[in-house]
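Annex B, item 7. Sequence and structure tokens for protein A, then protein B.
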Amino acid sequence: ENLSRLPLGEHDLLALRATTRNTAVPTIIHGGHRINVIPGEVICDVDGRVLPGQ
């Protein structure tokens, strides 16, 4: 990929890639109240970003 040719660090490349394609990132996860119990339900909020024209 052409982005890998740029003299940027790994963090910079990841940020640049996120601005050139659609993204979906889980940002908040709710579930359970104890560390050793599997919750019956988990809720996950996802931040989705779609490029203009998509």
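Protein B:
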Amino acid sequence: MGGRSGFTLVEILVVVAIIMILAAILLPVYEVATKRAEAISCLSNLRNLGMAASLYADDYDDRLPPARVSETRSSGSDVGWPALVTSYTRNELLLLCPADANPTAATGTPGPRCSYGINYELTLVGGYNNSSLRRAELYQESRTILFFESDSSLRTLGMYQALEGLAAVAPRHAEGCNFTFVAGNCKWMRLEQTLSPENLWSP
């Protein structure tokens, strides 16, 4: 008498059900792990940008990278802080957060994207005349934001001023953002934590 071959329909359905249950359990875990990896990569990007900004300041009389270098407000003739900073990193991929799925800036202005913004309170102090503060002028470097995640940035424009409603800040990671401070320290925070009990945007 020959042995049984193949599977019954019931057995196949049981296997399919087990696979679906495992997928339902594992997919959320995978999604959480992916988001965590994106947040860590983003934080690493910002840490490297902070180190590059420090090198820039060392070379330019302690001044932070200006938000924009131009004679006019025309974006066609501007050089934004991303170009100044990445001249030290030699890696433009640091300007892109892996969780930033938006191919264009929120401004709608065409141009190469940048996932991060710079604090205009420190880097656009003289309007559009390429002026920025010196690190020594700050009350506390480790408590003053320099870079943050933004939806409004282009590599030429830098970003729109954070103090104009703070709408440029993009909470891409668990309803919060990664921030780099002038001293080079980086951390994840919710936007409201940057404003109260202490305003971390102000020098």
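Comment on protein B: Residues 9-59 form the longest helix (51 residues).
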